[in-house]
Design brief:
The complex is a heterodimer. By secondary structure, chain A is of the alpha/beta class. Chain A has helices spanning 3-13, 35-44, 49-62, 103-112, 118-123, 146-151, 159-165, 167-173, 184-192, 433-440, 446-457, 459-462, 467-479, and strands at 26-28, 87-89, 130-136, 139-143, 155-158, 197-201, 210-216, 227-232, 237-245, 252-263, 268-275, 287-298, 304-311, 316-319, 322-325, 331-340, 345-354, 360-369, 374-383, 391-400, 406-415, 421-430. Chain A is globular and about 60 Å long. By secondary structure, chain B is an alpha/beta fold. Chain B has a single domain (2-239), classed as P-loop containing nucleotide triphosphate hydrolases (Rossmann fold), CATH 3.40.50.300. In chain B, β1 (2-11) and β2 form a beta hairpin. In chain B, α6 (148-162) runs parallel beside α7. The longest helix of chain B has 18 residues, at 231-248. The two termini of chain B are 29 Å apart. The chains are: A alpha/beta, B alpha/beta. Chains A and B meet through α10 and α11 of A and α2, β7 and α3 of B. Bound molecules: adenosine-5'-triphosphate and magnesium ion. Chain B: It comes from Rhodoblastus acidophilus (Rhodopseudomonas acidophila). Chain B: Residues 2-246 form the ABC transporter domain.
Chain lengths: 486, 249
């Protein structure tokens, strides 16, 4: 076979284009999980005593906890001792500038299309700029535009750095939305979390650029335990996006994240996710196990949090970004696209907890199942007795491609306030042969036709994404369904 | 340009077309008429290459090329266009986006350059105006909630922009009021040219008053039983299919 033909074959067969491995010398914690490993992580990060205590207390609780089994997910029992809980590229100690970063790491981000050079971003054609925190396995490689953001008082840094630079904020807010007792995976995360981003927007500040964190798993046999904390003080606004990819491997790898958002009076946080962890191959081999606890506390009156997620990756997705609507007039939104192809399993949805008066929430979920995949929407809308004037609108649409996949909708509603207004709509549809033929007859080939129809199905959610990422997400939607028809 | 030779087609194992032969030279308009269930839509789907319409015998030549086994998108790129009897709805995809995707896909298959955004917009707006299609309708999801007449106008718009060499119109007149019928027929007539042929499927003389055919074929029992000039439509209108077919036999 000619070189060209081989390259072409590789291109067409390799559907997951982020599946490469970077050749980076890493250091690991000893394999498995025990108190020594937790001390190891804490020492690596040079943490103060209170942080280590927090971790150890979570760990001691975790060893007596049971894995949740209520989700519609089937996978072999995870051996939590058969993984590394810390993996980091060998590098100099202390905070990094771009010059200190291993060139191989920089090449990795270039390959992933993540801009780390501020000058290039500034020189770019795009009007709107994006600040990036690049997390590689258990450490942050670099965070861009930190200085410029600091000028308006915005703090954007790796959480391990915030522990040192802003301990008062971390102490006040860490675990205040997702307590370390919350659930099996959140408790595990509290014990072993390694890296994630910390964001603080001071009162009245509208963050001048999009913030984003890019998570990359590289090392084999390692888990990633992202921890992100975002606080929007009174009247502040921020739009934040996270992206995730991992190499293509035969073994499963664990990602257990905790994300906490706090919105004070009149503040707004827009949190978008494009999750593209390695989904496993066509036969269901490999892929990331993604167990994530994401929760927002709309603490202040008139506060607003909007979750938008595009979930295309992971072999297993267990994820329910939620809003606690505590403040009067606070608003929670959840816009979701979950695609499960081949042998992927997704169990995802949201919880909207209405505590305050005149709180409102909106849920738009678009689930797409193809191949032999199972896709479940699981959601809870809960209205407290005192939440007068609360209202929710929920719309769950499922799209099936082929007849070997499944779509399930599990909406729970608990209303203790008889005056609450709750609306729920659900539909299930298929891409019909008629629709496909209609596209084909106009000259649109099958794969593109599927992508077009699915993107149309997801339009309401895609519209919620920041412009910079919407086009990328549209392409991803098409790519992740390649080979699902015909 | 189009030559169908002794075409036999099975649908779900049942033979529907049983030796259909037809020749449409460039620039001509041919009408196909025939009773319900005669195989008119089957003919149009087979020409467009729909899966499940299995050609067991015979062939379809298009500009001298045997296209019988070509994929539908390849046929479209070569200039075969089918205006559907029942156009499909595609939620969330605007007419604008659909058209752009279709035009770019065809250009790609033909190895031509894609239109730039400004050229595309100009072309769409001009064509839409002629068909009395509003900007708002171009932005709405394709055919979703469109009235019967709007759907047919939208099919005509697609045809105008895709500029096919052979346009097959399957019951373009069904569901149209008299004004819409005129509009669509005018749209078609504007597209008539020495390089473009039409295959117009209809039940009614009325459409053929507006789109005047060169030849009329009567399809019954899966084959063409009678061909003639436009006076044939009048005979049908007066005497019905049975009598005309019986006389021809
Ligand atoms: N998918 C199918 N399965 C089984 N039979 C089919 C299928 N499609 C078409 N047929 C049959 O093929 C025959 C021809 O149908 P076709 O739609 O081509 O007729 P037509 O001439 O277009 O009729 P009309 O004037 O009602 O539109 C009919 O008997 C129909 O029932
Ligand atoms: Mg028909």
């Amino acid at each position: 076979m000619s070189e060209e033909a081989a390259a072409l074959q590789e291109l067409t067969e390799q559907k997951y284009k982020y599946g490469f491995v970077s050749d980076i010398e890493s250091e690991f914690a000893p394999k498995g999980l025990n108190e020594d490993v937790i001390r190891f992580i804490s020492t690596k990060k040079n943490e103060p005593e209170w942080m280590l205590d927090y971790r150890l207390s979570a760990y001691r609780r975790w060893v007596n906890m049971e894995e949740p089994t209520w989700a519609k997910l089937h996978y072999p029992k995870i051996d939590f001792q058969d993984a590394y809980y810390y993996a980091a590229p060998k590098a100099k100690e202390g905070p990094h500038t771009l010059e200190d970063v291993d060139p191989e790491l920089l090449r990795t981000y270039e390959k992933l299309g993540i801009p780390l050079h501020e000058q290039e971003v500034l020189a770019g054609v795009e009007q709107r700029r994006v600040a990036v925190d690049a997390v590689f396995d258990s450490v942050s490689v670099v965070t861009t535009f930190k200085d410029e953001l600091a000028k308006v008082g915005v703090i954007f840094c790796p959480i391990s750095e915030a522990v040192h630079s802003h301990p008062e904020l971390v102490k006040k807010y860490l675990g205040s939305v997702v307590p370390d007792t919350d659930n099996f995976y959140a408790t595990l995360n509290a014990a072993v979390f390694s890296e994630g981003s910390f964001v603080y927007i001071p009162p009245g500040v509208r963050c001048p650029m999009e913030l984003s964190t890019y998570f990359r798993i590289n090392a084999a046999k390692s888990g990633q335990f992202e921890r992100t904390l975002i606080i929007a003080d009174a009247g502040a606004y921020v739009s934040y996006l996270e992206g995730c990819t991992a190499p293509q491997r035969d073994e499963n790898q664990l990602h257990a994240a905790v994300v906490e958002l706090v919105a004070l009076d009149d503040a707004e946080i827009k949190y978008s996710t494009v999750q593209n962890w390695f989904p496993g191959d066509e036969n269901g081999k490999g892929g990331i196990y993604n167990f994530v606890t994401k929760r927002a506390d709309c603490r202040g009156k008139n506060s607003k949090v909007s979750w938008t997620q595009v979930e295309t990756g992971s072999a297993i997705t267990w994820k329910y970004p939620s809003c606690i609507l505590r403040g009067e007039n606070s608003v929670g939104e959840f816009y979701s696209i979950a695609i499960a192809n081949n042998y992927q399993q997704a169990d995802t949805g949201t919880k909207m907890i209405h505590l305050g008066k005149n709180t409102s929430s909106r849920i738009i979920s678009k689930g797409i199942s193809a191949g032999k995949a199972q896709n479940t929407y699981r959601g809870l809308v809960s209205i407290n007795a005192r939440a007068d004037g609360a209202r929710n609108f929920t719309q769950c649409d499922s799209l099936l491609i082929g007849d070997q996949c499944g779509a399930h909708t599990v909406p729970y509603i608990q209303s203790k306030n008889p005056k609450a207004i709750l609306e729920h709509e659900a539909t299930t549809s298929k891409i019909s042969d008629d629709q496909l033929f209609y596209c084909l007859s106009r000259g649109i080939p099958t794969e593109e036709a599927v992508s077009l129809i699915v993107n149309g199905f997801c339009r309401e959610v895609l519209q919620q994404l920041p412009m910079e990422f919407a086009v990328e997400a549209q392409k991803l939607v098409g790519l992740s369904l390649e080979g699902s028809v015909g | 340009m189009l030559e169908i030779k002794d075409l036999h087609v099975n649908v779900h194992g049942k033979e529907i077309l049983k030796g259909l032969s037809l020749k449409v030279p460039p620039g001509e308009v041919h009408a196909i008429m025939g009773p319900n269930g005669a195989g008119k839509s089957t003919t149009s789907y087979t020409l467009a290459g729909r899966a499940g319409y299995e050609v067991t015998k015979g062939e379809i030549d298009f500009f001298g090329e045997d296209v019988t086994t070509l994929a539908p998108e390849e046929r479209a790129a070569r200039g075969i266009f089918l205006a559907f009897q029942y156009p499909l709805e595609i939620p969330g995809v605007s007419t604008m986006n659909f058209l752009k995707t279709a035009m770019n896909s065809q250009a790609k298959i033909r190895g031509e350059k894609e239109l730039n955004a400004a050229e595309f917009l100009r072309a769409v707006r001009a064509a839409a105006k002629e068909l009395n299609i509003s900007e708002d309708m171009l932005k709405r999801p394709l055919n979703v909630g469109f009235s019967g007449g709007e759907k047919k106008r939208n099919e005509t718009l697609q045809m105008a922009l895709l500029k096919p060499k052979l346009a097959i119109l399957d019951e373009m007149d069904s569901g149209l009021d008299i004004d819409a019928l005129k509009l669509v027929a005018e749209g078609v007539n504007k597209l008539r040219s020495p390089e473009r042929s039409f295959l117009v499927i209809t039940h009614y003389q009325r459409l053929l008053d507006y789109i005047v055919p060169d030849v009329i074929h009567i399809l019954a029992g899966g084959k063409i039983v009678l061909s003639g000039d436009k006076s044939l439509a009048l005979q049908l209108e007066q005497n019905g299919y049975d009598a005309v077919i019986a006389k021809a036999a």
